[in-house]
């Protein structure tokens, strides 16, 4: 039980800290900086670290949380790309996009194309989601 709570607290803390660190540049549309790239790298590394530990500990509840988070990230990334291509208005999604995607703003330093950035984030989210769902299918998870 203790590990479950720690994993969830670490990910929530990472979401908040990395959101704060990348928010200003993301909000203003400023060019991404090396700081943003480092924040993105640390953010994704923390999630991979939690995934590996959770897989080893066979913690089913954390994997459900994990898969839900990455599915939401995937859906809002796809929605953001769709909005960018079509120009459709989905103002209701803005808080979710800010919460889930701002941490990835550092990718903009490497790729100066929003659609490609969306594809990269979608791919990462899909991989993380598949890893989590695949681990839930294993019968030996507790």
Quick synopsis:
The chain is mainly α and 142 residues long. 80% of the residues lie in helices and 0% in strands. It starts with a helix and ends in a 5-residue tail after the last helix.
Major sheet description: none
Overall number of strands? 0
End-to-end distance: 12 Å
Topology as a string of helices (H) and strands (E): HHHHHH
Helix coverage percent: over 70%
Shape descriptor: globular
Main structural class = mainly alpha
| Spatial extent as radius of gyration | 15 Å
Number of helices: 6
Indicate the proportion of strand residues.
under 5%
**Mean pLDDT score:** 90
Low-pLDDT regions: none
Tell me about this structure:
Helix 1 (2-28) packs antiparallel against helix 2, helix 1 crosses helix 4 (94-101) and helix 3 (60-86) packs across helix 4. 80% of the residues lie in helices and 0% in strands. The chain starts with a helix and ends in a 5-residue tail after the last helix. The protein has 6 helices and no strands. It is mainly alpha-helical. The radius of gyration is 15 Å and the shape is globular.
Secondary structure: elements and pairs:
Elements: H1 2-28, H2 34-57, H3 60-86, H4 94-101, H5 107-110, H6 114-137
Helix pairs in contact: 1-2, 1-4, 3-4, 3-6
């Amino acid at each position: 039980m203790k590990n479950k709570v720690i994993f969830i607290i670490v990910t929530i803390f990472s979401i908040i800290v990395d959101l704060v660190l990348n928010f200003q540049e993301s909000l203003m549309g400023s060019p991404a900086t090396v700081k943003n790239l480092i924040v993105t790298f640390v953010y994704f590394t923390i999630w991979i670290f939690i995934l590996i530990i959770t897989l080893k500990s066979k913690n089913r509840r954390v994997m459900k949380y994990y898969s839900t988070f990455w599915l939401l990230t995937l859906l809002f990334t796809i929605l953001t790309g769709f909005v960018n291509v079509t120009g459709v208005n989905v103002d209701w999604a803005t808080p979710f996009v800010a919460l889930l995607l701002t941490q990835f703003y550092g990718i903009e330093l490497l790729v100066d194309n929003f659609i490609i950035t969306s594809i990269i984030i979608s791919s990462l989210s899909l991989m993380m989601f598949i890893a989590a769902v695949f681990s839930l299918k294993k019968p030996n998870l507790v």
